[in-house]
Structure formats: C-alpha cells, structure tokens
Amino acid sequence: MKKTAFILLSLVLVAGLLLSNTGKAQAFDWTPPVVTPVFGDSEFSTTPTAIDRLAGIVPNDNGLILPVGFPEGTAQFGGDAVVVKDLTQGSIAKVCFSMPPKRTEWAGSIHQWNGSQWVKLATTINYGDVESTAGTACAEIYGDGAYALIMGYTGKPEPKGLPICSADFNIAGWSYWTISPEHPTNPYNKYAQRIDMLVLNITLPVGTPVTYKILGFTPPDALQGALTNSSTVSSNSGGQSTILFYTGEISFDTFPLTDWIVSDQMFSTIPFTFRVILPDCYKDFSNPFIFWGS
User: How far is the C-alpha of 284 from the C-alpha of 277, rounded, in Å?
Assistant: First the structure.
C-alpha cells in the first residue's frame, strides 16, 4: 500500500516490546448551568452552587457527594447545581446543564429539591451532529429552588471479578489505517483511524475471544468512535497470536464511528490506556502506538 497525503496504512511488528501499566481519571469540563426567562416579567436571581452546599446529599465511602433517595451506584451529580430565587408564580424559566458526550453512555435528568426528595423534571437533551459532541440538558422551571443534573451510567458494566492476567505477555504488533482530515470523503475534518489487527506474544487457541478497549484519556472528547472492538484469534505461530478485527476490502466512501476512531490528532500522540481483555483476565498497557508516532 503506497503512503499518500490522504491515506496511511501503518504496520508495526515488534517482538518483546515492554510496556508499563498506566491510567488517568477521565473528566468532563462542566460549564455552569444557565437559567433564562421563558414567560413572565420576574426579575429572578440565579446562583451556581457547589454540590456539597446543597440539601439532599450524602457522601459515599469514597467521599463522593451523591444525591439522596437513589439506589447505591445508580446516580451522581453532573457538575454544579443552581439555586433560583424570586421566580414568581405564573412566570416560567428554562434551566440548562452541560452533558457529557453521547458516546460516554451517561444519561441524566434535571431534578429539583422539594425539601424531602429530588423530583425529576421533564428534561430535553440535545447533542451535536457528531456522536462525541457534548450536549445540553434543559427543563422548564416554575418556581424557586435548587436544581441539579443527576446522572447514571447506561452502558454495559465492566466484567466483575475479572482479574489482571498473570501471564507476562505484551502487544507485539498491530496494523491500523489513518485517514487524514483532508481526505475528500472524510466527513469529520479530523483524523480517522481504524485498528485492523493486533499481535500478542502469547499462544492463544484459534477462536479465543479478544477485546480491546481504549480508556483513560482526557479531555473526554479527545477520542471518539470505535473505542472498543471484539474479535477472535485467527492464527498463532512462533509464540504469537494474531487477532483480525476487520477483513476484506476497505471502503473509503464512509467512515462510521462504529469502525473508526476520530480525533483532532493522530491517536499515536495521545496518552491513553489500551486494555486487552481475554476470556478470563485483562491487561492494561500505556498507548502502544505512541512510541511510533505517525
């Protein structure tokens, strides 16, 4: 495959590559909630309020401030709350909170504290055109009070009890495609990359399921799209196992986020944790592509 300014196929086979396990906490840049008038002539005031200054909160064992009245592990606050005063009867306002990107699989609704419980309000969530674009959650409000975004994770839970692999294996090789922002059919105006193959320096039976997962990067929209993928071992020889995630002809007409990783820069320049999940264990690596640049 010829390298061009538009398309680059990277293939690296490195035996005995030693990588350290690292991880970073993922964060979201919460913007302050915004309250705007919808109907009426109330001259109301708004005060962004830190969660730990609200009523209706409880700390968990890790010190995280959570909303009361929800089953353990199902809800947490999204950013700061806002306290509204002097919104008179008959007037209507709209409160909006920032939302993490859709691909993070977090969902939420705006709630009002009524003195004894958090009451869910009718909430409208809007995202941008790209799956990873941060969104907004908005609700109409009709009176004074404390309003907060309460969120829960909707994605598949991590396998519980899956241990770290005891076998001392590493990522010995890989191949991936890189489509530049200038490619005429690239709709994102960003780099689009697709991991096609991994080679592990461990002998696994043909047909063994293998999953990769990219996590631990900041900011949370630095990477979007195919941050996880699964396949099976297609062949093994010489103490190495090959996993093909895609086979057959590649189409450069479309770049669905189910197949491609999209970012402002090549993922070989972004620190992240690359997790390899086997049927009975997993192992984390610091970004194995970062050592080879572009």
Answer: 9
What backbone phi and psi angles, to 5 degrees, belong to 290?
Answer: -65, -25
* Helix/strand/coil for 191: strand
Buried b (16+ CB within 10 A) or exposed e, 16-29: eeebeeeeeeeebe
**Sequence-separated (6 or more) residues with CB below 8 Å from residue 29:** 98, 134, 219
- Is the pLDDT assigned to residue 232 strictly greater than 60? yes
Measure the CA–CA gap between 232 and 158, rounded to whole angstroms. 19
pLDDT tier at 160, thresholds 50, 70, 90: low
- Write the DSSP symbol of residue 53: G
Over residues 240-271, the pLDDT tens digits come to 999 998 877 777 777 777 788 888 888 888 88
Burial of 208 (0-12, 13-18, 19+ CB in 10 A): middle
Cβ–Cβ < 8 Å for 29, 219: yes
H-assigned helices in 124-233: none
State which amino acid sits at residue 18.
Answer: L
Contacts of 114-121 with C-beta under 8 Å, sequence gap 24+, read 114/145, 115/55, 117/56, 117/68, 117/69, 118/56, 118/67, 118/68, 118/69, 118/70, 118/148, 118/150, 120/150, 121/147
| 129 secondary structure, DSSP code | S
Q: Mapping DSSP to helix (H, G, I), strand (E, B) and coil, where does residue 209 land?
A: strand
Q: How far is CA 81 from CA 67, 118, 121, 187, in A?
A: 12, 12, 14, 36
Mean residue pLDDT across the chain: 80
Query: Could you give the CA distance from residue 142 to residue 280 in angstroms, rounded to a whole number?
Result: 53
Q: What 3-state DSSP class applies to 169?
A: coil
